[in-house]
User: Which sequence fits this backbone?
């Protein structure tokens, strides 16, 4: 893989940076990494972006220095500018696809996955054949019952007509699949990422139309897929085994972190460090190297370490960071613990401080909005009496 040597070099450089920062202060207790309030815009945990810029692959452009920026809550801070590439042709460390099977006899090798109720299902031919049973709704019919052929969006025009909230009527009861090359005209996107993230007293819900983070391999980590809209038109838009699929307007992106999307990333004794959230804190894989999920994660999926459970001599104090959500949950992060940066256009270095919009998203005290992780409830209004396709009689 063309970036392996660069990634190994980046790992060495990143570990060196972590060790150097560890020597700059007393980290003898979990709270010692917090500086006086007057230095809040210069606050950093050792897992924040200044120690991880070397982990991005060479296809991602990170600014040489910091810029003055305004974060999501209106506060002034210092940010890096990270330019994410058009990922249709870059090496991201894994294959993209497959997504939709072509026949109900196709196996998991020929298809992607589907996420539902914290479970990951192979979106293979058997799954497609038994969707009516899975969702207790006889209107599901994504295949020709005579030939077993699955109806798949097989062109860019079909993708554009089906991969939208108001699915074109002729593409209802279709398996929606968009190819990476459909997004080849998408421009690289710049993001402001806080260089010195500081936990806030109130968590912030994410914008459902925005991202939640940037993976080191150049892929955007997105908010939960709009499952309710997808299923409402009797369509299925599978993810590949790496938790990603393609929107022709933004390119390939992740909605889940799986073992596949965790490969060839920066390693830590605390697990694989996958990328950075829009608030500047780093994102680790779900489980620790021993296979366990940390038992002290907060509402947003984060916690802080003082180095006692890691190789402190090599890595310093990891500090506050996130662990990605279970793949089946359709959410990489549940919320943000700090004010966020954002995608930017032109020369603007300001993020939208009026986080409202149709979903009424905004700041909430720890614990999240009443009744769920989003103000409008979890994505999807799915039947509760589902059975696995393999259990269908």
Assistant:
């Amino acid at each position: 893989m063309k970036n392996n040597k660069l990634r190994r070099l980046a790992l060495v450089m990143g570990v060196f940076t972590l060790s150097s920062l560890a020597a700059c202060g007393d980290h003898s207790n979990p709270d010692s990494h917090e500086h006086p309030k007057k230095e809040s815009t210069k606050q950093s945990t050792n897992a924040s972006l200044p120690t991880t810029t070397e982990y991005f692959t060479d296809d991602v452009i990170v600014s040489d220095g910091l810029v003055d920026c305004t974060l999501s809550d209106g506060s002034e801070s210092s940010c890096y500018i990270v330019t994410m590439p058009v990922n249709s042709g870059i090496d991201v460390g894994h294959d993209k696809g497959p997504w939709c099977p072509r026949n109900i006899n196709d196996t998991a090798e020929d298809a992607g996955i589907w996420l539902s109720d914290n479970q990951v299902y192979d979106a293979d031919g058997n799954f497609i054949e038994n969707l009516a049973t899975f969702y207790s709704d006889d209107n599901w019919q994504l295949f020709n019952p005579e030939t077993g052929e699955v109806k798949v969006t097989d062109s860019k025009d079909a993708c554009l007509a089906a991969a939208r909230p108001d699915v074109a009527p002729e593409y209802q009861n279709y398996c929606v699949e968009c190819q990476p090359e459909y997004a080849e005209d998408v421009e690289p996107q710049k993001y402001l990422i806080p260089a010195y993230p500081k936990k806030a007293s109130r968590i912030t819900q994410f914008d459902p139309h925005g991202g939640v983070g940037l993976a080191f391999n150049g892929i955007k980590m997105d908010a939960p897929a709009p499952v309710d809209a997808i299923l409402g038109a009797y369509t299925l838009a599978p993810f590949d085994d790496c938790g990603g699929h393609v929107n022709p307007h933004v390119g390939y992106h992740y909605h889940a972190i799986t073992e596949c999307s965790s490969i060839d990333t920066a390693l830590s004794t605390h697990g694989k460090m996958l990328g950075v959230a829009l608030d500047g804190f780093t994102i680790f894989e779900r489980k620790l190297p021993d296979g366990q999920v940390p038992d002290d994660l907060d509402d947003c999926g984060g916690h802080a370490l003082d180095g006692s459970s890691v190789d402190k001599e090599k890595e310093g104090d990891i500090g506050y960071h996130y662990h990605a959500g279970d793949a089946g949950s359709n959410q990489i992060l549940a919320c943000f613990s700090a004010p966020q940066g954002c995608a930017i256009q032109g020369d603007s270095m300001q993020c939208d401080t009026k986080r409202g919009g149709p979903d009424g998203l905004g700041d909430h005290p720890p614990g999240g909005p009443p009744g769920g992780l989003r103000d409008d409830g979890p994505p999807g209004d799915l039947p509760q009496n589902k059975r696995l396709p393999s259990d269908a009689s």
Observations:
- The radius of gyration is 21 Å.
